[in-house]
Write a structure and sequence with these properties.
The protein is α/β, with parallel strands linked by helices. It contains 24 helices and 26 strands.
Length: about 600
């Protein structure tokens, strides 16, 4: 055996988004290495943890899930349980800290001890299945993302104890960026920390282990003198050059109709500038597949079994090439595919693309759009490459078309001001009739500081002070590393009191909107001959407007997408003053939304063919 590849349980082990989805990195190497004349065995242990927990009874299952759901995976979750087993002395010194975290969710240290027993049992069972392959393999690898590092380090320590000479590599988002050097310098039983994509990294690492290469690519390691060596970076080849991912379906613990296959339309972020996002540190080549290639992959799965029709789109932005979405929809229409997730950047969305997404098949869960805020200034600080009016255009579009969408709303951010808060509150108030639609979900939350995001790596440029330890490392007394995985760091703003007040105001606005109903909050338009009728209802109070002539033309020109104000005078044969007067009146009545610079606008009334 050349390579054994392992995926340990994710923090959210109970979520179908994780527990039902095979690890695509394991699938990629299962498909690739045999084509290169190498053997590989993969273990998707993350798909098995939930059933293992259930063996311990309903009360343990409920409490274990409660731990993850109510307190959040970033603060206390399965990764903490595995780490407490890996560093038992540190755990014993830190039990009082754990008790303080457990109390608010109704759990005790005794509960945590039971969780440790469950995790120990799982590790023992999983290692028993791994052990027969260890003495015959050249390399063991762990794919680590979404808080898998604790379990991976624990299992790798058992492997090293059993077969000390067997090299071990860990890779993925959990070990990317500056933390990779911390990990290699602090955990002796890990031989290599991989920074690149597995399709290049693992084959070249195998060549290095066999003496065919003087230096490995895309990995951090220690040389014979014990010095940490910087990696030689080798870029990944085209995704279209690789075989399709392959999975041992008989070894997976689910029937085929419950497996959710991971699907890449491409890889990497085409923007790569957002200041809150650590993707820049992951050393991933940004590329897209053609529609023909994706269609062929989907056909490949259907040839294996028609029951393989559930898919999870992995891309950080599935709209790298919007035309690919349109072309792919023609292939998927009527195929009965079911999609459980997709993530899109707002500036690439339009009516044509959204219609194509509907033709993909059934959307089981909402797809995610990076809205983040309704303040143009904060969007600029974020380097989102989009403005607030475009965010509103996308929300209005999906609200009209009934597509399930969810987005996060940051309630605070470095350099955010009271003026930014007021702008967000004003826009949220203007689009209540959109935000109350049943197919739109939004979740207000605080900005957090991932270890590898630009705000962390360029902290002097932002009005933030960060802790010297991540929230994870700070939990364990005497922990060997200041960071751990992609856990956030505690932080404080320079204007902390103002940020706290602004966050509270935005949360209260969100809570108020969540309590409102579509029946009492709407804005519809209806075109009748030469007349445009608009009916607005706010908290049950109705108003009606009738637009004719140029007013009607101006309103309808921005009913589906944003328009430039400067284009309208020549287009409609009006003076600039007349256009601005009409638009200002529309704004005063709440019928349109201006951009912050008043150079563009969007008409807010929605079309409803049922009315």
């Amino acid at each position: 055996m050349d390579f054994v590849f392992v995926s340990m349980p994710y923090a959210r082990f109970d979520s179908k988004w994780f527990a039902n989805v095979p690890n695509i990195n394991l699938g990629m190497l299962n498909g690739l290495l045999p084509h290169q004349g190498r053997s590989v065995k993969s273990f998707h242990f993350h798909m098995e943890y939930m059933s293992h927990v259930k063996q311990f009874g309903a009360d343990i299952e409920r409490k274990f899930i409660n731990l993850s759901h109510k307190f959040g995976v970033e603060y206390l979750s399965l990764d903490y349980v595995f780490a407490s087993l890996l560093y038992p002395d540190s755990y014993l010194r830190s039990r009082h800290r754990l008790a303080e975290r457990l109390g608010p969710i109704g759990l005790t240290l005794n509960d945590f001890e039971v969780f440790r027993e469950v995790a120990t049992s799982f590790i023992t069972t999983a290692f028993f299945r791994l052990e027969p392959y260890l003495k015959q393999t050249r390399l063991v690898g762990f794919s680590c993302s979404h808080y898998q590092l604790g379990g991976s380090l624990l299992m790798s320590s058992k492997i090293k104890q059993a077969v000390p000479q067997l090299p071990i590599v860990v890779g993925g988002k959990d070990v990317a960026g500056p933390f990779s050097r911390q990990l290699k310098g602090s955990v002796e039983h890990i031989d290599f920390v991989a920074l690149g994509e597995c399709e290049v990294t693992v084959p070249t690492l195998l060549d290095y282990i066999e003496g065919k290469e003087r230096h490995p690519s895309n990995v951090i390691y220690k040389d014979e003198a014990g010095r940490i060596r910087e990696p030689r970076i080798e870029e990944n080849a085209s995704l279209e050059a690789f075989p399709f991912p392959e999975y041992d379906y008989e070894a997976l613990p689910l029937p085929l109709n419950e497996i959710i296959l991971p699907l890449e339309l491409g890889r990497g972020c085409p923007w790569g500038k957002c200041t809150f996002c650590p993707d820049q540190a992951y050393n991933i080549r940004c590329q897209s597949k053609t529609a023909e290639r994706v269609a062929a992959e989907l056909d490949h799965y259907r040839e294996i079994s028609p029951d393989l029709r559930n898919f999870f789109i992995l891309d950080s932005d599935a709209l790298k090439q919007p035309d690919t979405i349109v072309e792919l929809s023609k292939h998927l229409e009527g195929k009965g595919c079911r999609f459980h997730f997709a993530e899109f950047r707002a500036e690439r969305m339009n009516r044509k693309v959204v219609k194509a997404l509907l033709d993909f098949g059934e959307w089981i869960t909402p797809f995610q759009v990076g809205i983040e805020t309704f303040s143009d200034h904060v969007l600029q600080v974020m380097k989102k490459g989009v403005h607030a009016l475009k965010n509103v255009e996308v929300l209005k579009l999906v609200a009209e078309m009934g597509i399930p969408l969810q987005f996060n709303l940051f309630t605070c951010y470095p350099d955010m001001t009271t003026e930014d808060m007021n702008e967000s509150l004003r826009i949220m108030d203007s689009i209540i009739h959109i935000l109350v639609c049943e197919n739109i979900q939004f979740f207000p939350g605080e900005f957090y500081l991932p270890a590898d995001c630009p705000i962390f790596t360029e902290i002097d440029h932002y009005k933030v002070q960060k802790s010297s330890h991540s929230l994870f490392a700070d939990m364990f007394e005497g922990f060997p590393m200041p960071g751990f995985s992609n856990y956030p760091y505690a932080y404080a703003f320079d204007n902390h009191e103002e940020q706290f007040r602004m966050a509270g105001a935005i949360r209260k606005q969100a809570e108020r909107i969540h309590k409102k109903t579509k029946r009492e909050n709407f804005m519809y338009y209806k075109e009748e001959a030469d007349t445009l009728r608009i009916q607005i209802c706010r908290d049950g109070q109705k108003r009606d407007y009738t637009l004719q002539g140029m007013e009607k033309e101006i309103y309808l020109c921005a009913i589906e997408h944003i328009r430039q104000v400067k284009d309208l005078p020549e287009e409609l044969g009006l003076s600039p003053d007349t256009v601005h007067t009409i638009l200002d009146d529309f704004q005063d009545k709440g019928l349109i939304l201006y951009a912050s610079d008043k150079k563009t606008f969007l008409s807010l009334a929605m079309y409803d063919d049922k009315r």
